[in-house]
Amino acid sequence: MFRVHFAHTEDKMRILAGLMMTAALGVTGAMAQPGRLTDVAYMQTARCAGLASSANLGAGDNATLIGLLKSQSLGRDPYVLEKATTLQHEAKRQADHADGYTKSKLEAELGGMCATLRS
Length: 119
Fold this sequence. Notes:
Elements: H1 9-31, H2 39-52, H3 63-72, H4 78-96, H5 100-111, H6 113-118
């Protein structure tokens, strides 16, 4: 087993202080943008926008979702933006061709989690 030995207690305290400072800066950075969606939430919003735009599912009002996507796109990694666009198009295509159980599953997603994103 590998063990690290410190010459002095002061070394331990410096390392502990450095770790605490790093953690504090991380928390401050996370709090700086409280209204910013995570990348996963952003991509889920794109999927919901695709579902909401499908005539097969009733083509609900997705202006709120589209507006949220536009406002949250600034400073977002290009990969995330591309993936979100792909998810939006795939969700619309899936919803447009859905029937039976798949359609009811997508309607439940649209009325459940997607409805919370609209509010």
